[in-house]
Write a structure and sequence with these properties.
8 domains, single chain, 45 strands, 789 residues, 6-stranded antiparallel sheet, alpha+beta
C-alpha cells in the first residue's frame, strides 16, 4: 500500500485493537470487505465496511459507530484495514486470487460443478467427489470438532445469497449482473457464490493465522505427481491433478514447502537487489542453486512441458525461459526501465535499500511563460521541482524520487515530466489541451468572445440561467496574440471568435431546476470552460437515509446530510446529483450521496404502502441507507430456537415453546402464524424483517391456530416434530430457559432414538444378543413416541 488511508492516531488505535484480539472474522468478495470488530466485552460488535482497489487504495468505507458517523473515520476502520493487509503489501482479496487455495478450488468447481450435491459422504468421515467413471478426484475430511463444525457450516448451513444481502454482488459489472438475472451467471460469479470458494477462503485463513500444514504428493518421487494432499490439524484435502492442471498451480506453490523443488528462475536465487541513486542503476545479487544445467525438452526425453514450465523427475519444476535481464549484475538506462516494467513484483520483494510502490500516482504540474512566451510545463509529485532535484530520475512510467523511492505513474497528460511548448505552437496546443489548462488558475480557456465572459446564475425557484458579462480590456496588460487565441495574463486564453460549443450554451439559455442535473451531465465538457461553474471544493461529506419505525409502528424515512466543516444547510442547494454553493459552483455529490428525489423530505409510509416499499423500493435504497431499524433488516442468521419441550400425557403429543432467533433478537412462532393468517407478505419483528413467502415458513401454514396454547407453546405430534427438525435450522435450549434439563433429556432421547424408561423384560427367559437388545430399545422408542403405526 502507498500510505495509510486514515489519520496516524487512528491507525495507532487500530493497531492496538488488532493486538488485543478485537478484530475477528473477515467477510470479503474481491475488494469488498466487512470485518468483525468487538472493541471490548461490554461494547456491541461492529462490522466496518471497506471497498479497496487491488493496489489497496480505499474507494469507500463506513462504520456505524458514533465517531465514524461524525468524522467519517474511526479506529475500527483502521483496525479492519490493518487486518486486511496483515504482514503483506497486498490486500487479502489479491492474495486469495493468486493463492494455491483459490487455484485448487476453482479447478474443483470446474470439474464437479457448483452444487454441494456433487459431494458424497465417505465411510469413516469426510466427503469426496468423483468422475463419471467413479474415480475419486477430490476428498476433504475434518479432524477436530472445530473443523467438523466449520465444514458442516460451509457445506450444509449456507445462507441464501441475493443482490440485497450478499457482498458478493457488490463488485459485479452491469453485464455480469444482467447475466445473473437472466439465469446465466459467469463461472467466476457461480464460483464466488458456491461452497468451493468458501472452502478455499477457510484454508487460506488457516494459513494466514499460522496453522502448520504439510503438502504430500502421490506418487512421491521420480514422476509427475498425480495427487496433491494438504493436511492441517483441523482439516485435510486431496486433489487429483491432471497434467494440464500443473500450469496454473505451479506459481502458487513457489513459496510453499513442497516435496518437489520449484525453480522460477532456473539456477538463479536472488539474495538482494539494490538501487544506486547516483549511478541510476540496479544491482542484482544472486547465487546459483544448482550447478547443473536445466535441460530443455529437445535435450532430454524425460522433460515434460507444462505451459511456461518444465518438469524433470530428477530436478523438479523450473521455468522454461528466464528473462536475460535477471542474469545481469548491473542494469542502467533502458534496461533499468525494462526491469521496472517487467519485474516490479520481484523488485518489491528483493529491493532492500529503496521503497517501491505499485499503487499508481498522478502528477501535478506547474505552468509558466518565459520572456519569449514559450510555455513551460513541469510535473511534480510531492512538492514543486521534486522530480528535478538531486538524484530523482524518470524510467518510462516509473519515477524515482530522491529520499522517497519508486512510484508508478498513471497515464498523465504528457509523456515527458518537463515540457516546453514553443510560442509558435501554442495556439494548437491550447486547442488540444483545453481541459488540462482549465485546472490551472490564470491558464483556463474561455469560449466566449474576447469582449465578454459567459457566466451564470442559480435561483432556487427559477433554476439555472446563462448570461454575458462585459469585461472591457482598458488598462489590461500582458496581452498575447496567438492566432486563434488571445492570452491575457492572470486570466487565461480567450478565443477570438465564438466557439462552436457556444451554439449549445449561449447567453439567455435557461434551465429549469428539475433539469439542471441532467443538463450538467450532458454538457460537462462545455461547462468546464465557464469560469467558476464547477467547484474545487466538496461541501457534502456524505448523505443518505435514516429508516426507522415511529411510535405507531409505521416506517419513516428521514434524509440526513453531513456537510463538510465550514458549510451550513442554508448555504447548500441540492439538485439531484449535484450540490451548489453560491460563489463556489457546482460539485458532484460523493458516491452514494444522492438521496432519491422521492425521499428528499421526511416521509412516513401508510400500512397500504409498506408491502410495495419493502418488496420493490427498499432493496434499491440500500446504498443510500445510513441507519435502519433492526426490524427492517433481513437477518443473515435465522434459527428456530427451542425454549422448552415436554411430552403430554398422550405418548404421541409434544408441546414446544418455539421462536425464530436471529442476530437482532427473536419472535415467537405464534406471531408469525398470526401474520400468515392475515395474509401478510412482510412482518417487522425483533428478529428482523421476515419475508413470509420464504419456503421455510411453509410448515406454519399447515399448523392450526388451536394447536397453540395460551402461553404460546405449540402442540405437535412426535412425527411432525421429527419432520420439522430435519428441514429447519434449529438451536437447542439454553440454561436460562425454563425446565432446561427436562427439555435436553427429551431432545436427547429423540436424537438417539432411545428412551430413559427401559422396556421391562422381567419373565422373559431367553438371553438376547446385543443387536437384539438394540432392536428392542428401538422398537420401544417407536412405541413410546407413537411412531410404531
Amino acid at each position: 500500500m502507498l500510505h495509510a488511508p486514515f489519520q496516524k492516531a487512528l491507525m495507532q488505535e487500530g493497531q492496538l485493537l488488532l493486538e488485543k484480539g478485537c478484530v475477528r472474522q473477515i467477510l470479503f468478495s474481491e475488494g469488498t470487505y466487512q470485518v468483525e470488530v468487538k472493541p471490548s466485552k461490554n461494547e456491541e460488535t461492529l462490522w466496518p465496511f471497506l471497498q479497496l482497489e487491488d493496489t489497496g487504495r480505499v474507494l469507500d468505507h463506513f462504520c456505524t459507530c458514533e465517531q465514524a458517523e461524525k468524522k467519517g473515520e474511526c479506529p475500527h476502520l483502521a483496525a479492519a484495514f490493518l487486518k486486511i493487509f496483515g504482514e503483506s503489501i497486498e490486500p487479502l482479496h489479491v492474495r486469495f486470487r493468486h493463492s494455491l487455495w483459490n487455484q485448487l478450488m476453482q479447478m474443483a468447481a470446474k470439474r464437479h460443478g457448483y452444487e454441494v450435491e456433487s459431494l458424497h459422504q465417505q465411510a469413516g468421515g469426510g466427503f469426496y467427489a468423483q468422475s463419471l467413471s467413479n474415480k475419486k478426484l477430490f476428498a476433504i475430511r475434518a479432524h477436530t470438532k472445530k473443523g467438523e463444525k466449520q465444514l458442516e457450516e460451509i457445506l450444509f448451513h449456507r445462507v441464501l445469497e441475493t443482490e440485497e444481502t450478499s457482498l458478493k454482488f457488490s463488485n459485479l459489472s452491469m453485464e455480469e449482473l444482467s447475466l445473473w438475472r437472466e439465469g446465466k451467471p459467469s463461472h467466476l460469479l457461480r464460483y464466488e457464490l458456491c461452497f468451493w470458494s468458501d472452502l478455499g477462503k477457510w484454508l487460506m485463513f488457516l494459513e494466514e493465522e499460522g496453522a502448520p500444514y504439510e503438502i504430500v504428493c502421490h506418487p512421491a518421487k521420480k514422476v509427475l505427481p498425480k495427487e496433491l494432499e494438504i493436511a492441517f490439524r483441523e482439516v485435510s484435502v486431496k486433489f487429483y491433478l491432471a497434467e494440464v492442471n500443473w500450469e496454473e498451480l505451479i506459481p502458487s506453490l513457489i513459496d510453499k514447502e513442497t516435496p518437489f523443488a520449484i525453480y522460477p528462475y532456473q539456477e538463479l536465487v536472488f539474495d538482494q537487489m539494490l538501487y544506486d541513486a547516483q549511478q541510476r542503476s540496479f544491482f542484482i545479487d544472486t547465487h546459483h542453486a544448482l550447478q547443473t544445467k536445466f535441460p530443455r525438452p529437445e535435450e532430454e526425453a524425460e522433460v515434460r512441458v507444462l505451459g511456461p514450465w518444465l518438469f524433470h523427475p530428477e530436478i523438479g519444476f523450473y521455468a522454461k525461459e528466464v528473462d536475460p535481464l535477471l542474469r545481469q549484475a548491473q542494469l542502467s538506462g533502458k534496461e533499468a526501465e525494462l526491469l521496472l516494467m517487467r519485474h516490479a513484483a520481484l523488485l518489491q520483494k528483493y529491493l532492500m535499500n529503496v521503497a517501491l510502490y505499485v499503487d499508481p500516482v498522478e502528477l501535478s504540474y506547474t505552468l509558466h511563460f518565459d520572456a519569449e512566451y514559450n510555455l513551460h510545463i513541469e510535473g511534480y509529485l510531492f512538492k514543486k521541482g521534486d522530480l528535478q532535484e538531486g538524484d530523482s530520475q524518470v524510467f518510462g512510467p516509473w519515477i524515482f524520487v530522491q529520499d522517497r523511492g519508486f512510484y508508478y505513474l498513471k497515464g498523465g497528460s504528457f509523456q515527458e515530466i518537463v515540457q516546453t511548448i514553443p510560442r509558435k505552437r501554442l495556439s494548437i496546443f491550447v486547442s488540444q489541451h483545453k481541459a488540462f489548462l482549465g485546472q490551472y488558475e490564470g491558464f483556463q480557456t474561455h469560449f466566449t468572445h474576447i469582449e465578454s465572459y459567459l457566466t451564470y446564475a442559480v435561483d432556487k425557484e427559477m433554476g439555472l440561467s446563462f448570461y454575458e458579462e462585459s469585461q472591457p480590456l482598458e488598462g489590461v496588460t500582458g496581452i498575447l496574440d496567438l492566432e486563434e487565441w488571445v492570452y491575457i495574463e492572470g486570466r487565461g486564453f480567450y478565443q477570438k471568435t465564438a466557439s462552436k460549443v457556444s451554439q449549445v450554451i449561449v447567453p439567455g439559455l435557461k434551465i429549469a431546476r428539475e433539469a439542471i442535473s441532467s443538463f450538467i451531465k450532458a454538457n460537462e465538457d462545455d461547462l468546464e470552460m465557464i469560469e467558476g461553474f464547477f467547484s474545487l471544493k466538496q461541501p457534502v461529506e456524505k448523505s443518505g437515509l435514516e429508516i426507522r419505525l415511529n411510535n405507531a409502528g409505521c416506517i419513516t424515512l428521514r434524509p440526513k446530510v453531513f456537510l463538510t466543516k465550514g458549510y451550513s444547510q442554508d448555504k447548500v442547494l441540492f439538485l439531484s446529483d449535484y450540490s451548489y454553493v453560491k460563489g463556489e459552483g457546482f460539485a458532484l455529490l460523493p458516491k452514494g450521496g444522492k438521496i432519491p428525489e422521492k425521499y428528499q423530505q421526511e416521509t412516513t409510509l401508510t400500512p397500504q404502502q409498506e408491502e410495495f416499499f419493502l418488496t420493490q423500493e427498499l432493496p434499491l435504497l440500500k446504498p443510500y441507507v445510513l441507519e435502519m431499524d433492526a426490524s427492517l433488516k433481513t437477518p443473515k442468521r435465522l434459527m428456530l430456537k427451542i425454549h422448552k419441550i415436554e411430552r403430554l400425557d398422550s405418548r404421541t403429543e409434544l408441546t414446544i415453546q418455539l421462536a425464530y432467533h436471529s442476530e437482532y433478537g427473536e419472535i415467537a412462532v405464534q406471531e408469525i402464524k398470526e401474520a400468515l393468517k392475515e395474509k401478510k407478505r412482510w412482518i417487522k419483528t425483533k428478529a428482523g424483517l421476515l419475508d413470509l413467502q420464504d419456503l421455510r415458513f411453509s410448515w406454519l401454514r399447515e399448523v392450526y391456530q388451536d394447536q397453540f396454547a395460551s402461553d404460546g407453546s405449540l402442540g405437535l405430534s412426535s412425527l411432525a416434530w421429527m419432520r420439522l427438525t430435519l428441514v429447519e435450522k434449529w438451536e437447542m435450549p439454553t440454561q436460562e430457559d425454563p425446565e432446561y434439563e427436562k427439555s435436553m433429556q427429551l431432545l436427547q432421547e429423540m436424537q438417539t432414538l432411545q428412551t430413559s424408561d427401559l422396556f421391562d423384560l422381567e419373565g422373559f427367559t431367553s438371553c438376547l444378543r446385543p443387536y437384539q437388545e438394540r432392536g428392542i430399545q428401538w422398537l420401544w422408542f417407536l412405541y413410546s413416541y407413537g411412531l410404531s403405526g
